[in-house]
Write a structure and sequence with these properties.
The protein is an alpha+beta fold and about 300 residues long. It folds into two domains: about 150 residues, PUA domain-like, CATH 2.30.280; about 110 residues, no CATH class. About 30% of the residues lie in helices and about 20% in strands. The chain has seven helices and twelve strands. The strands form four sheets. It has a six-stranded mixed β-sheet with strand order 3-4-6-7-8-5. Strand 11 and strand 12 form a beta hairpin. The radius of gyration is 21 Å and the shape is elongated. The structure holds zinc ion. Zinc ion binds next to strand 10 and helix 4.
Length: about 300
């Protein structure tokens, strides 16, 4: 690839990322083939998602732009987990059994040229969430797979506990799983709650989180029934056990906080929800919070006083 060709590759990719950034800033978390096709980007008409197979190389580009992993319904396995190695990097299987199939060559070209790609991750309930920019950093020919690095993907909602990686080698793998799940989990949970805080029904997506009932770092599954859409305020209050949610979907406020005297934020934002039912729940019953998980979390709220 000549320097000019590489620049052109980068320009179109960055235009695609900027478009995705704008969509996500406007609250769009889940994408389909239809709404990522025919985009006017960088003077070209571009499609961002593969149609049939898992790998997509647009005609205008020399290297693959994106690849896709479909959502697998949860059983005991967490979706996408099978290809995360202890080194903390993900693996993406080549197409078919010919490493020189043109789609595999297109992925290899992105690896050799260090070009950023989009990884489309299937979202529970339909559509895809976009993980970008990601890089292919190695090829494992025997296993017919590429090594995927998602370190460059911004992850604003995660607070990383400090851990000595030498002492706990599985931690790196755990972090890699959390990073990968975070975006499709958010997309699925926000859609199920119609982009509204389940406690107060606040609707600004950039101030909403997909909260885990059983925490991700503690083995909680990244599935809708282990999630709640909460605004930043109520997410923090839930994590700090100021607010609890009963298995019957009712809100409780910590006794001390209930008696505290402060301004309108405490009164209207916290205290007045005590004893009320959740304002927003998923329409589909099978998407509603798992009562067993809520109960376990609620017991810890009670223990905290
Ligand atoms: Zn709220």
């Amino acid at each position: 690839m000549t320097p000019d060709e590489r620049l052109r590759e980068l320009a179109l990719r960055h235009a695609a990322f900027a478009w995705l950034d704008r969509q996500r800033a406007a609250g769009k978390e889940t994408f389909t083939q239809a709404d990522t096709s025919g985009l006017a980007l960088g003077g070209e008409t571009l499609r961002l998602m593969p149609t049939q197979q898992g790998i997509w190389k647009p005609g205008q580009l020399e290297a693959a732009l994106s690849f896709r992993t479909v959502y697998r319904p949860e059983g005991t396995d967490r979706p996408y987990d099978d290809n995360i190695d202890p080194d903390g990097f993900h693996r993406y299987k080549m197409r078919g059994d010919d490493p020189n199939h043109f789609e595999n060559r297109a992925l290899r070209a992105a690896m050799v040229e260090r070009l950023p790609l989009i990884w489309w991750l299937g979202v529970q309930g339909g559509g895809y969430s976009a993980l970008y920019p990601i890089y292919l950093i190695n090829e494992e020919p025997l296993e017919m797979q590429f090594v995927v690095d998602i370190e460059a993907v911004p992850q604003p909602d995660i607070v990383w506990p400090s851990v000595d990686l030498e002492l706990d080698p599985s931690y790196r793998q755990q972090l890699a799983k959390i990073r990968l799940h975070q975006r499709p989990f958010r997309a699925a949970v926000l859609r199920a709650y119609r982009t509204s805080c389940s406690i107060c029904s606040f609707r600004h997506s950039d101030l909403l989180d997909a909260a885990h009932i059983h925490e991700d770092g503690a083995g909680g599954l990244p599935v809708i029934t282990n999630g709640l859409t909460l605004c930043k305020m109520h997410h923090a209050a839930y994590d700090r056990r100021i607010i609890g949610i009963t298995p019957d979907y009712e809100i409780r406020v910590n006794r001390d906080v209930l008696e505290e005297v402060d301004g309108p934020m405490l009164r209207h934002g916290i205290q007045e929800f005590h004893g009320k039912p959740l304002m927003v729940l998923p329409e589909r019953r099978t998407h509603r919070p798992d009562r067993t998980l809520l109960d376990a979390r609620y017991q810890r709220f009670l223990d905290a006083g």
